[in-house]
Amino acid sequence: MAGQGDCCVKVAVRIRPQLSKEKIEGCHICTSVTPGEPQVLLGKDKAFTYDFVFDLDTWQEQIYTSCVSRLIEGCFQGYNATVLAYGQTGAGKTYTMGTGFDTAMAEEEQGIIPRAIAHLFGGIAERKRQAQEQGVPGPEFKVSAQFLELYNEEILDLFDSTRDPDARHRRSNIKIHEDANGGIYTTGVTSRLISSQEELVQCLRQGALSRTTASTQMNVQSSRSHAIFTIHLCQMRLCTQPELVNEAVPGLPEGTAPTREYETLTAKFHFVDLAGSERLKRTGATGERAKEGISINCGLLALGNVISALGDQSKKVVHVPYRDSKLTRLLQDSLGGNSQTIMIACVSPSDRDFMETLNTLKYANRARNIKNKLVVNQDKTSQQISALRAEIARLQMELMEYKAGKRVTGEDGSEGYSDLFRENAMLQKENGALRLRVKAMQEAIDAINSRVTHLMSQEANLLLAKAGDGNEAIGTLIHSYIREIEELRTKLLESEAMNESLRRSLSRASARGPYSLGASPMAFGGSPASSMEDASEVIRRAKQDLERLKKKEVRQRRKSPEKEAFKKRAKLQQENSEETDENDDNEAEEEEEDQDESGCEEEEGREDEDEDSGSEESLVGSDSDPMCKESSVSSWHWLSPPPILPSTQMSPYPLPQARSVLGAVS
């Protein structure tokens, strides 16, 4: 649904299927549609692009959903709409619009007007149901209809039951007028008040049967007049008030809710079924039929001149000839006025109608350049209420800015923004820039850490490759150890920085003296003793976190490849010494060392469980000391090249022997 402003006329092209008569006479199809594009190709080299294109096998429902459905929704918002069917005689205009009623017509063959009526009353029922569910007063709707026929430049009322059908040539009493806003209305026309969908369909059927038709060589039931079926919709609904207005309305006692305000919206929907353009040579019309054809072509010519004047992009044409025909005068709102308009050009696919199809496509192509000006149709009271409501919202926003200190008034009465607001805006901008810098620096740090880990892993893998061992599992293990140590080192540095900031805060608090130490906690409802206890608790938890980190780094060093190599070398030395001197005492010592080692492992397992249980605690209150820094530095000693061992000595030893070697070394 388009809002207020300029809106171009939409153009759709519908190609009807070939008739049985055309197939018998051997007529070929001269039109084609580009797949996936709204483009029609006539013959071999004439291409036209429109907003919508419907090929031979298009159903009525698809045309309505694509073109007309959104216009009905716009009527509920107060916008006018027009659907215009144009084309040569026998091209399917009446069938598309749905004014040619047939008792044997199936539901899926219903035209645009019956479907629009069902959509209109369905929307009315839906809006009433939604208002009832929300507990607010429902909107009130009033629907009325008119049905006009333009026959030989005379306007006839198809709803007038007193009119003599044989007196078509008498002068009509219906007059066309223009209001102060440029809107077109008629006087002397019967307007029927409608209360249900069935009643409106019955009125449409009655008017369609009263329409003038005749038979020609090109169409057995040809419309000899232009028909305009108009639906007027008037609704009174509850105004949607802005939040600022709902918060407080000055001048009302406390606890009194503001009165509900209603607005009145009107909309009119024109369904125009134009008579088909025809050539007397092809229709074979004589006498009365020939006069009707001439009158039809004159009205369509005036309509074409109006379309050309409105669609002239050079803006050389200043005057638009609306008064050249009553048809263009009635459609003044629809073409270049306050209306959403869609033109449906109906064409024949047969090659014998090539020239008529070409003229219709050119006619419709010019209409795409017309721009209408959409305005919501509100009564003057509703417009004034909306303007006052917008003014109140603006003033309330300005008052809030004065209260917040955003706006100030100078000594000379000039208004402007306060220095505090400007400084705040500048600081917010600077804060945003710093946030971006921090984010960029963090990304750079992550990239550098990843690069360092990769290089160290490559260096370790290179040393292993020189030793003649191509075990990929060792390289993967080294890479994971390096990455984990990098993460631990980063966390340790963050903990040191946070600890330093906490120490500075504590030193500032202690430097304030006894008065400030006693007054500050009392201001928050506490005591000096509780403040010191909280600080001591934070430092104690920080020291515990640092102890866990140091223990974890020690275990990482024990599991590192350098430690494994050291164990293997110590094991080899021990085996050499055992070959020369082996006795039962050494075996007993090894068993005791095994037991001690297993006890150490159990103790380390308990430490791991303690660390896992406390891993989610925050490192905000962590402390730093020289021992922590020494542990962080010593964690890098294992990166020195490990001793190169023969490939035969790289096989893992049994666990008891490794434990005995570790005990001997320690």
UniProtKB/TrEMBL annotation:
<dbReference type="GO" id="GO:0042995">
    <property type="term" value="C:cell projection"/>
</dbReference>
<keyword id="KW-0547">Nucleotide-binding</keyword>
<keyword id="KW-0067">ATP-binding</keyword>
<dbReference type="GO" id="GO:0007052">
    <property type="term" value="P:mitotic spindle organization"/>
</dbReference>
<dbReference type="GO" id="GO:0005524">
    <property type="term" value="F:ATP binding"/>
</dbReference>
<keyword id="KW-0966">Cell projection</keyword>
<feature type="coiled-coil region">
    <location>
        <begin position="378"/>
        <end position="405"/>
    </location>
</feature>
<dbReference type="InterPro" id="IPR036961">
    <property type="entry name" value="Kinesin_motor_dom_sf"/>
</dbReference>
<keyword id="KW-0493">Microtubule</keyword>
<dbReference type="GO" id="GO:0005875">
    <property type="term" value="C:microtubule associated complex"/>
</dbReference>
<feature type="coiled-coil region">
    <location>
        <begin position="478"/>
        <end position="505"/>
    </location>
</feature>
<dbReference type="GO" id="GO:0051231">
    <property type="term" value="P:spindle elongation"/>
</dbReference>
<dbReference type="GO" id="GO:0007018">
    <property type="term" value="P:microtubule-based movement"/>
</dbReference>
<feature type="binding site">
    <location>
        <begin position="87"/>
        <end position="94"/>
    </location>
    <ligand>
        <name>ATP</name>
    </ligand>
</feature>
<feature type="compositionally biased region" description="Acidic residues">
    <location>
        <begin position="576"/>
        <end position="615"/>
    </location>
</feature>
<keyword id="KW-0175">Coiled coil</keyword>
<dbReference type="InterPro" id="IPR001752">
    <property type="entry name" value="Kinesin_motor_dom"/>
</dbReference>
<keyword id="KW-0206">Cytoskeleton</keyword>
<dbReference type="GO" id="GO:0003777">
    <property type="term" value="F:microtubule motor activity"/>
</dbReference>
<dbReference type="Pfam" id="PF23204">
    <property type="entry name" value="KIF21A_2nd"/>
</dbReference>
<keyword id="KW-0505">Motor protein</keyword>
<comment type="similarity">
    <text>Belongs to the TRAFAC class myosin-kinesin ATPase superfamily. Kinesin family.</text>
</comment>
<dbReference type="InterPro" id="IPR027417">
    <property type="entry name" value="P-loop_NTPase"/>
</dbReference>
<dbReference type="GO" id="GO:0008017">
    <property type="term" value="F:microtubule binding"/>
</dbReference>
<dbReference type="InterPro" id="IPR056533">
    <property type="entry name" value="KIF21A/B_hel_1"/>
</dbReference>
<dbReference type="Pfam" id="PF00225">
    <property type="entry name" value="Kinesin"/>
</dbReference>
<feature type="domain" description="Kinesin motor">
    <location>
        <begin position="8"/>
        <end position="370"/>
    </location>
</feature>
<feature type="region of interest" description="Disordered">
    <location>
        <begin position="549"/>
        <end position="666"/>
    </location>
</feature>
<dbReference type="InterPro" id="IPR027640">
    <property type="entry name" value="Kinesin-like_fam"/>
</dbReference>
<dbReference type="InterPro" id="IPR019821">
    <property type="entry name" value="Kinesin_motor_CS"/>
</dbReference>
<keyword id="KW-0963">Cytoplasm</keyword>
<dbReference type="GO" id="GO:0005874">
    <property type="term" value="C:microtubule"/>
</dbReference>
<feature type="compositionally biased region" description="Low complexity">
    <location>
        <begin position="616"/>
        <end position="625"/>
    </location>
</feature>
<protein>
    <recommendedName>
        <fullName>Kinesin-like protein</fullName>
    </recommendedName>
</protein>
